[in-house]
Design brief:
heterodimer; A: mainly beta; Folate-binding fold; 4-stranded antiparallel β-sheet; two-stranded antiparallel sheet; 1 helix; B: alpha+beta; Gyrase A, domain 2; 2 domains; 6-stranded antiparallel β-sheet; 5-stranded antiparallel β-sheet; 3 helices; 11 strands; 38% strand; globular; binds zinc ion
């Protein structure tokens, strides 16, 4: 069982308490109507799929309920770090 | 028309007794979900000290998340409302039931489907977690006594899971 450090609970908790919520650090354009179709498509659908270091959102759904960000290696499945939502990319 | 409201419990009201553990349904109580950005606002409303650390509980109030608390009080109790402060107080009394597991095997039986290490879960701690696929709130009331709060629609299944684990 993988243990994931929740930055809000500040402890390692079992993976089964969490859900993955996709790529991190994607912000919704402030003025959607100013976007071209290509820009809007990129915002909605285009995602990175790196081999290795990946920034992801996770949610401690069966715990404190909070979304946070994580850096996970997609090859080893090891979590490098986790940090609170709103903090700068690591 | 019925003159008397009958309370239908989803699990047996008689205690289940097995070697090293008893499992019983706690009586009715009031439950509230409390939300606030600032714990101080809830302290003003309730005139108590709110536990600040996630997982801590104090005076019937458990801190479940950075802006979320779970308050349990005796049935029939009234609580302050209409404070004018930016807090949300939601009565969820009948959403959940509480099972009480008591005895030296209580932690072991909960761990049959819960991934938390309850042997290292301090008395007074409270947390939302999961048992198999069911969301539960586990509160360690004493060395040998746990309260498990869960949604009543899952209770019949959870009762079977607990009593089956207790029989083994
Ligand atoms: Zn958490």
């Amino acid at each position: 069982m993988i243990l994931i450090h929740c930055p809000y609970c500040d402890e390692k908790r079992p993976e089964i308490e969490f859900v993955n919520a996709g790529q991190a650090h994607i912000s919704r354009p402030l003025d959607p109507s100013s976007q071209t179709d290509e820009e809007w498509e990129a915002y909605l659908f285009i995602r990175a799929n790196p081999r290795g270091r990946h920034h992801e959102r996770w949610r401690h759904v069966y715990g404190c309920g909070r979304f946070f960000n994580a850096v996970r290696d997609t090859v080893t499945d090891k979590f490098e770090t986790t940090y609170k939502a709103g903090e700068p990319r690591r | 028309m019925s003159d008397v409201l009958i309370r239908n419990e989803p699990v047996p009201e008689t205690q289940y007794v097995a070697a090293g553990v008893t499992i019983s349904l706690a009586g009715p109580m009031q439950r509230y979900a409390l939300r606030a950005r600032r714990a101080e606002d809830l302290e003003t409303v309730f005139q108590v000290t709110m536990p600040r650390k996630i997982g801590a509980s104090e005076g019937g109030i458990a801190c479940l998340g950075p802006d979320e608390w779970y308050l349990r009080t005796e049935a029939g109790a009234t609580i302050p409302t209409a404070s004018g402060l930016p807090v949300a107080i939601t009565d969820i009394s009948d959403r959940s039931i509480c099972l009480v597991l008591e005895g030296p095997r209580a932690a072991e039986i909960l761990m049959s489907g819960c991934p938390i290490d309850l042997d290292n879960f301090a008395i007074g701690r409270a947390t939302r977690t999961i048992y198999e696929t069911v969301e539960v709130i586990i509160i360690r009331e004493a060395e040998d006594r746990f309260h498990v709060e869960l949604w009543r629609s899952f209770a019949a299944w959870f009762w079977i899971a607990m009593t089956t684990a207790a029989r083994h």
